[in-house]
């Protein structure tokens, strides 16, 4: 049998726009400030809101080659995506 899924709840997500910038750290920092301000405004002006929180979107990647991280968060390796990463794979997993 294939995968089955049921809708169990709904939520509203608000995506904020940062300033046009070539500096990723400045843009991300600005987006956090804008998101926090939006969260405060939502709490103040929208009825029937149970909870508002600012949650960062995280893109994990291999520190050696930049390939998208595909393993568990605590894994010391990324499945051997490059030679340097492969050195971190325990012998029992090879």
Describe the structure.
The protein is mainly alpha-helical. The protein folds into 2 domains: 12-57, no CATH class; 59-94, no CATH class. It is 28% helix and 0% strand. The protein has helices at residues 24-45, 83-86. The longest helix is centred in the middle third of the chain and has 22 residues, at 24-45. The chain is flat and about 55 Å long. The mean pLDDT is 82.
List its salient traits:
94 residues; mainly alpha; 2 domains; flat
Beta-strand segment tally: 0
Helix content: 25-40%
Spatial gap, N to C terminus: 31 Å
The topology string of helices and strands comes to HH
Oligomer: single chain
Strand content: under 5%
**Low-confidence sequence ranges:** none
SSE-based structural type: mainly alpha
List the total number of helices: 2
Query: How would you characterize the largest beta sheet?
Result: none
- The backbone outline, from C-alpha atoms, is flat
Q: Average the pLDDT over all residues and give the rounded result.
A: 82
Count of individual domains:
2
As a whole number of angstroms, the C-alpha radius of gyration is 20 Å
